[in-house]
């Protein structure tokens, strides 16, 4: 999936995906992001939530953090997959048209967004 233009939106989410074997790695990554950047760190969901086909933790951040946070996440994700998307008010477009992946892309359950 092609990367959308940076800073088109005023706010973004990054969803860090993990499983039982990588939950501690993901928890540490999200906590470190919370310490280093102006991000709101969501709960570490050890179950599938919403459209996400894997366990996940959400990082919410403004466009002003995008250019610092996303390269850092890419460099420190150590094999974890991360869905990054803008917040336009249209959840389906946000998770498709305004989204791209660090790592592997996973098929989303878009019916959870309708």
UniProtKB/TrEMBL annotation:
Pfam families reported in the protein's UniProt record: DOPA_dioxygen
Cited Gene3D superfamilies: DOPA-like domains
Protein name: DOPA 4,5-dioxygenase family protein
